[in-house]
């Protein structure tokens, strides 16, 4: 991959390493997020990413990670079973990547800059797309609607990637059952369902068998509600081969309502790791490092002195444990590796500094203002880590938060994860709702080197982009 413009890639394999074994082992240099793993690649400059595949299998993806550039540059990465091995399910007859994305009429970089200055919500997207096309429900796109061909009796693998900026999505195929067999580069126990809920950053591998009457069927996706969200519906069409009367309009799926929280919960709670002999999991049973992290959207004082159009003249601010992340001047990785002081502090709290009724409907104003800074959490090599994420109702702005360790934290709910910190490096942890991340709902996990060179960060590449 070669990029000539100002882009940084975030390879979504990178943080999965903590969940699925060794991925981008010891190589944070090619992880991508700007000001975390590297400085921005200026227009005309270049940077070569060194991507080390190890245990991943299934669908991954890559995207630009500089401000809101993810909206424009992204794509699938497919890792097939190793030679001599096969899928833990019947081999599909064919496969299609299905990339969900956001379409903005305005310049996305201006949209986020405008919002960060005003302190208010950024403009919503104007459309959502499937493989680059919004679909028949938008006037602009009728001829271009993405179509795939089904032969009766065959089974297809849809590799669905949610690259959408700010919406968690329901996705369905009219008339057809879905069997989810993989997520984020790992297999899961086959999950039969009529719809999926896929959060930004996530990937799901789905089997669909062409066993319905030969006709045309819509696949469609729309949001599960957020505080502010694009409520349009994107579609693509499945056309069966053969001789039949083409319907005037394809059959449309009965998508869950925007507000249907039960549909979200009922799907998410059924996801289970495959945990077979060939694809084992290794969740630490003993934990030595515990983090309890509250997630909130509040406000910080306006930089331009009361002229913000966010709540009460302030600017919106995301936070984790009351710490709102500020981008440093030099990337955290370089500062850590070269021991440059004054770039970040290591005081990211292990628990919320104040305990309050996190999900109360009547929270007082004194929980609204976080502390701004570049706070990171340092983990010992090989630590067994447990993180409990707790959603909060600060500002009555409770929302689902797809935290980028690929775990969805439900609205006013919680999620717990465990992993072994066996990949030394500097890893960005953030909400994958892009506006939340832009507001500071981020932190960095630094995993220290182990005792040997084989358990330490690799040497930096010969060329690093200057800051
Ligand atoms: C990439 O940048 C390096 C360092 O500036 C330079 O030596 C090299 O020629 C560039 N390569 C391309 C393809 O532009
Ligand atoms: C955002 O939306 C507002 C209101 O519709 C519009 O005036 C503004 O130009 C938009 N910003 C960008 C960068 O497109
Ligand atoms: C789409 O086109 C139809 C028919 O021309 C029109 O009635 C409708 O208002 C248009 N919708 C939008 C969103 O422009
Ligand atoms: C979508 O949101 C717009 C406001 O942005 C609203 O006017 C419209 O009724 C909403 N549509 C649906 C189907 O909820
Ligand atoms: C398609 O089906 C129609 C009606 O059954 C038949 O008249 C026609 O010959 C068929 N066409 C082909 C190419 O088989
Ligand atoms: C979904 O919303 C529609 C109206 O928008 C309503 O008619 C329907 O009953 C709702 N379905 C459920 C299951 O709540
Ligand atoms: C901010 O506003 C206050 C009162 O309106 C004024 O005293 C102060 O000088 C302003 N500060 C800046 C940096 O503009
Ligand atoms: C916390 O808030 C919730 C929601 O308002 C309420 O049901 C619960 O009773 C509160 N708990 C305590 C301990 O005050
Ligand atoms: C967050 O930090 C600010 C600044 O230190 C403090 O005033 C506030 O009470 C803290 N809020 C919570 C909920 O811990
Ligand atoms: C890390 O932990 C594993 C067991 O989980 C152990 O086999 C290994 O020796 C440990 N490595 C170091 C350097 O502590």
Automatic annotation (TrEMBL):
<dbReference type="InterPro" id="IPR011707">
    <property type="entry name" value="Cu-oxidase-like_N"/>
</dbReference>
<feature type="domain" description="Plastocyanin-like">
    <location>
        <begin position="347"/>
        <end position="406"/>
    </location>
</feature>
<keyword id="KW-0052">Apoplast</keyword>
<dbReference type="GO" id="GO:0005507">
    <property type="term" value="F:copper ion binding"/>
</dbReference>
<feature type="domain" description="Plastocyanin-like">
    <location>
        <begin position="95"/>
        <end position="243"/>
    </location>
</feature>
<feature type="signal peptide">
    <location>
        <begin position="1"/>
        <end position="24"/>
    </location>
</feature>
<dbReference type="InterPro" id="IPR001117">
    <property type="entry name" value="Cu-oxidase_2nd"/>
</dbReference>
<dbReference type="InterPro" id="IPR002355">
    <property type="entry name" value="Cu_oxidase_Cu_BS"/>
</dbReference>
<keyword id="KW-0677">Repeat</keyword>
<comment type="similarity">
    <text>Belongs to the multicopper oxidase family.</text>
</comment>
<keyword id="KW-0560">Oxidoreductase</keyword>
<dbReference type="Pfam" id="PF07732">
    <property type="entry name" value="Cu-oxidase_3"/>
</dbReference>
<dbReference type="InterPro" id="IPR008972">
    <property type="entry name" value="Cupredoxin"/>
</dbReference>
<feature type="domain" description="Plastocyanin-like">
    <location>
        <begin position="15"/>
        <end position="83"/>
    </location>
</feature>
<keyword id="KW-0325">Glycoprotein</keyword>
<dbReference type="InterPro" id="IPR034285">
    <property type="entry name" value="CuRO_2_LCC"/>
</dbReference>
<dbReference type="GO" id="GO:0048046">
    <property type="term" value="C:apoplast"/>
</dbReference>
<keyword id="KW-0439">Lignin degradation</keyword>
<dbReference type="Pfam" id="PF07731">
    <property type="entry name" value="Cu-oxidase_2"/>
</dbReference>
<keyword id="KW-0186">Copper</keyword>
<keyword id="KW-0732">Signal</keyword>
<keyword id="KW-0479">Metal-binding</keyword>
<dbReference type="InterPro" id="IPR011706">
    <property type="entry name" value="Cu-oxidase_C"/>
</dbReference>
<dbReference type="GO" id="GO:0052716">
    <property type="term" value="F:hydroquinone:oxygen oxidoreductase activity"/>
</dbReference>
<dbReference type="Pfam" id="PF00394">
    <property type="entry name" value="Cu-oxidase"/>
</dbReference>
<dbReference type="InterPro" id="IPR045087">
    <property type="entry name" value="Cu-oxidase_fam"/>
</dbReference>
<dbReference type="GO" id="GO:0046274">
    <property type="term" value="P:lignin catabolic process"/>
</dbReference>
<feature type="domain" description="Plastocyanin-like">
    <location>
        <begin position="407"/>
        <end position="449"/>
    </location>
</feature>
<keyword id="KW-0964">Secreted</keyword>
<protein>
    <recommendedName>
        <fullName>laccase</fullName>
        <ecNumber>1.10.3.2</ecNumber>
    </recommendedName>
</protein>
